[in-house]
């Protein structure tokens, strides 16, 4: 068998704006607008530098079937750079850029193979003119997105090495649309040697021998997509052994830090602690968008609860980042602090607050799914819920879980009279 090297990446979402993020100034806004493009350029640079034999892209090159024209031009340009170094691209289309949405307005080099959505295809991966492996793939379309497309990828018995590509869901995928559903058992029972899969934005190796791999997306797009993003550089030896290296290519990271207020005595302490947290992250030498979460109990609790104080701390921290290339730019401060109360003792009291807290505990002891379901039932049972109309769709599980978490202390404090204004 001939050893070879390839890159696996996917979910480029070229040209996609970051979600739920307000303007943070010209410098940061420009970096955000270029981030998805810069990450793919880094991947192409890596492919050329490492002299890989192929680049595998597992779907969602674009973010919607409208295909932003700038994104198309930039993608074609990077493919042409790979073509100049005789590096082929094998790609499948995803649920965000299904087969029907692709047009021929901008031609891609002949070294780019887009797998059909109508049937599975088998293409050779060559090393110096000799077949090192075969790549099997099937694209996503509006017609097959609910189908188990992986079942159609059947390697031949005499393949030196086989790679299967598709865009879809493996097993249960909470918070993700189900696309091309299959199971891990079905994939591992297949004679395919390596599965390259797109759709889930979290980088993960679900299984080894055979490898079942999500490379994740190449650039985080919102606050839930924390940490390093990029691609896998994969080597296959002459004996078929697979080794993988993750390569960070995303220019911007979403990060989150927690600040326990227990040791903070005053406003200046908070400003200095935020500055310290930023400097620790600056050592990464990356552009960072930062969410700051305030936790614990302490003297600053009452101040942390005030939106005005949070805004001042945020503005001071943001002003320090102006004109810094490797900025650590806070975009939100979230208060999860609590005042000093003996809640264990409060739960034992035979009064309205004790009843409330014990009811909270009953609900809180349920699995997350049941908690959310009961909260939804409570909301829907209220006549006021009809006023929400279409906005009821904005009540995500995350929002309801956060509301439940806050309800423990805030609800009890309301009943205790802590918020009375007399």
Classify the fold: give the CATH topology of the largest domain.
Answer: Purple Acid Phosphatase, chain A, domain 2
Q: How would you write the strand order of the largest sheet? A: 4-3-2-1-11-12
Question: Pairing-aware structural class of the strands and helices?
Answer: alpha/beta
The 3D shape can be described as globular
CATH class of the largest domain: Alpha Beta
CATH architecture of the largest domain: 4-Layer Sandwich
- Low-confidence spans: pLDDT under 50, at least 5 residues? 418-422
**Strand/helix succession:** EHEHEEEEEHEEEEEEHEHHEHHHH
Mean pLDDT: 90
CATH homology superfamily of the largest domain: Metallo-dependent phosphatases
Distance between the termini: 82 Å
Largest sheet: 6 strands, mixed
Gyration radius, to the nearest Å?
Answer: 25 Å
Supply the number of helical segments: 10
Indicate the percent of residues in helices: 25-40%
Classify the beta-strand content into a percent band: 15-25%
Question: Overview of this structure, please?
Answer:
The chain folds into 2 domains: 245 residues, Metallo-dependent phosphatases (Purple Acid Phosphatase, chain A, domain 2), CATH 3.60.21; 165 residues, no CATH class. The C terminus is likely disordered. The radius of gyration is 25 Å and the shape is globular. The chain is built from 10 helices and 15 strands. It has 422 residues and is α/β, with parallel strands linked by helices. The strands form 3 sheets. Strands 4-3-2-1-11-12 form a 6-stranded mixed sheet. Strands 5-6-7-8-10-9 form a 6-stranded mixed sheet.
């Amino acid at each position: 068998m001939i050893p070879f090297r390839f890159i696996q990446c996917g979910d480029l979402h070229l040209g996609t704006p970051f979600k739920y993020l307000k303007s943070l100034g010209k410098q940061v806004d420009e970096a955000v607008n270029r981030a998805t493009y810069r990450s793919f350029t880094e991947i192409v640079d890596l492919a050329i530098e490492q002299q890989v034999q192929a680049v595998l892209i597992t779907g969602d090159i674009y973010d919607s079937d409208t295909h932003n024209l700038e994104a198309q031009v930039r993608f074609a340009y990077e493919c042409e750079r790979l073509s100049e170094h005789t590096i082929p691209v094998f790609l499948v289309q995803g649920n965000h850029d299904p087969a029907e949405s692709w047009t021929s307005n901008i031609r891609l080099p002949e070294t780019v193979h887009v797998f059909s959505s109508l049937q599975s295809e088998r293409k050779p991966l060559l090393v110096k003119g000799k077949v090192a492996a075969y790549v099997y793939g099937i694209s996503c379309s509006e017609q097959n997105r609910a189908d188990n497309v992986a079942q159609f990828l059947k390697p031949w018995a005499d393949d030196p090495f086989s790679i299967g590509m598709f865009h879809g869901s493996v097993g249960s995928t909470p918070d993700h649309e189900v696309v091309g559903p299959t199971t891990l058992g079905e994939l591992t029972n297949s004679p395919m040697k390596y599965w390259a899969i797109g759709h889930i934005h979290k980088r993960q190796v679900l299984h080894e021998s055979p490898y079942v791999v999500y490379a994740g997306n190449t650039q985080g797009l919102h606050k839930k997509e924390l940490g390093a993003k990029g691609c896998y550089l994969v080597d296959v030896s002459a004996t078929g052994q697979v080794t993988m290296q993750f390569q960070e290519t995303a220019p911007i990271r979403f990060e989150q830090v927690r600040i326990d207020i227990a040791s903070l005595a005053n406003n200046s302490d908070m400003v200095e602690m935020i500055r310290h947290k930023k400097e620790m992250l600056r050592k990464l030498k990356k552009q960072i968008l930062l969410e700051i979460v305030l936790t614990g109990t302490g003297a600053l609790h009452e101040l942390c609860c005030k939106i005005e104080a949070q805004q001042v701390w945020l503005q001071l921290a943001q002003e320090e980042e102006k004109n810094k290339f490797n900025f650590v730019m806070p975009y939100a401060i979230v208060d999860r602090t609590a005042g000093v109360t003996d809640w264990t003792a409060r739960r034992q009291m035979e009064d309205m607050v004790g009843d409330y807290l014990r009811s909270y505990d009953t609900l809180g002891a349920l699995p997350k799914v049941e908690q959310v379901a009961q909260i939804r039932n409570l909301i829907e049972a209220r006549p006021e819920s009809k006023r929400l109309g279409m906005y009821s769709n904005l009540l995500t599980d995350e929002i309801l879980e956060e509301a439940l978490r806050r309800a423990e202390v805030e609800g009890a404090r309301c009943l205790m009279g802590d918020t009375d204004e007399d």
